[in-house]
């Protein structure tokens, strides 16, 4: 039995637990950039060493045998502890290293986060990045993501959430559209074509000098986009007036491609919806790579001044 245990490698156990988590060998293979047959051989080899079957072979989907379920439940805490021990040992060298897996929202990633990476990489050249750009709010723990930037509420529990900045929504349109559909008063918005990425029946505004008085305006739903980046592009093509995040339209406003409409008003929505947050799993030990990059992003993104 001792020889059998000696022959089991941590990588085999890691693949086993990942297969249980993802539910099939193909997903594990894709994540690790190897063939599904290689994953199958690893599991078969582990079963040979253990002397019992881990998965039922008669089902289309992965299903643990009773022995397999007991084994996986027993080894997971120990394997997690070993992985954490390795991270702590590496951190003791005071070198930021390893691979940092992060997820970022489209648009904001390309415009505000990726330009910050060059400076950080010069400071910490041994750190590698695995960057996932998604509209979807990925499960950080399930996907083994170290850190995320999220705009708005984060419904997942078990996370540390650090507010970095607040986005201001601006009402904008092209000069050409405003010639065709003049907007001199807030009521004129009801008649103007609009591009939405917010699923609201009406847009809410308040005058700068009376922020507590909110004006609700029913807007035409001419075009609905599922993200702000697409809404911006359609707005730039003159398809309608739009409420867009300030960080996304700085250049377009400066170059005159877009102009701010009714600039005596502000969009009046819940600020939490448009807050930029830094989030990471709330674990007993925060790896140095995550802590150092989180501190860097907090410093850089909190200092952003949008126009």
Distance between the termini: 68 Å
- Give the DSSP E fraction (strand runs of 2 or more residues): 15-25%
Helix content: 40-55%
Structural category: alpha/beta
Number of strands: 13
Total domains: 3
Mean pLDDT: 84
The CATH topology assignment of the largest domain is: D-Maltodextrin-Binding Protein, domain 2
Number of helical stretches of at least 4 residues = 10
What series of H and E elements makes up the topology? HHHHHEHEEEEHEEEEHEHEEEH
Q: Are there runs of 5+ residues with pLDDT below 50, and where?
A: 1-7
* CATH uppermost class of the largest domain: Alpha Beta
Largest sheet: 5 strands, mixed
Please name the CATH architecture of the largest domain. Answer: 3-Layer(aba) Sandwich
Shape: elongated
**CA gyration radius, whole angstroms:** 25 Å
Family: Belongs to the LysR transcriptional regulatory family.
Keywords: DNA-binding, Transcription, Transcription regulation
InterPro entries: LysR-type_TF_proteobact-type, LysR_HTH_N, LysR_subst-bd, WH-like_DNA-bd_sf, WH_DNA-bd_sf
Pfam families: HTH_1, LysR_substrate
List keywords for this structure.
single chain; 307 residues; alpha/beta; Arc Repressor Mutant, subunit A; D-Maltodextrin-Binding Protein, domain 2; 3 domains; 13 strands; elongated; disordered N terminus
């Amino acid at each position: 039995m001792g020889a059998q245990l000696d022959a089991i490698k941590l990588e085999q156990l890691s693949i086993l637990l990942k297969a249980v988590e993802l539910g099939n060998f193909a997903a594990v293979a894709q994540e690790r950039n190897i063939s599904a047959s290689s994953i199958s051989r690893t599991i078969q080899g582990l079963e040979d060493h253990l002397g019992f079957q881990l998965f039922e072979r008669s089902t289309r989907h992965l299903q643990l045998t009773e022995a397999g379920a007991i084994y996986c439940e027993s080894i997971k805490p120990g394997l997690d502890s070993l992985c954490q021990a390795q991270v702590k040992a590496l951190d003791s060298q005071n070198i930021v290293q390893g691979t940092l897996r992060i997820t970022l929202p489209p648009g904001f990633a390309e415009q505000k986060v990726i330009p910050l990476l060059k400076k950080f990489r010069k400071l910490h050249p041994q750190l590698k990045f695995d960057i996932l750009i998604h509209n979807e709010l990925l499960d950080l723990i399930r996907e083994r993501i170290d850190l995320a930037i999220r705009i708005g509420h984060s419904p997942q529990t078990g996370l540390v959430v650090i507010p970095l900045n607040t986005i201001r929504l601006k009402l904008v349109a092209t000069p050409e559209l405003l010639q065709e559909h003049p907007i001199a008063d807030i009521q004129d918005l009801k008649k103007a074509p609009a591009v939405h990425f917010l699923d609201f029946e009406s847009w809410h505004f308040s005058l700068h000098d009376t922020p507590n008085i909110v004006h609700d305006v029913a807007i035409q739903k001419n075009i609905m986009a599922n993200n702000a980046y697409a809404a911006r592009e359609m707005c730039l093509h003159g398809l309608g007036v739009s409420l867009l995040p300030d960080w996304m339209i700085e250049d377009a406003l400066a170059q005159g491609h877009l102009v701010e409409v009714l600039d005596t008003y502000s969009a009046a929505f819940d600020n939490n919806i448009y807050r930029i947050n830094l989030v990471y799993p709330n674990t007993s030990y925060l790896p140095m790579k995550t802590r150092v990059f989180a501190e860097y992003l907090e410093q850089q993104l909190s200092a952003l001044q949008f126009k």
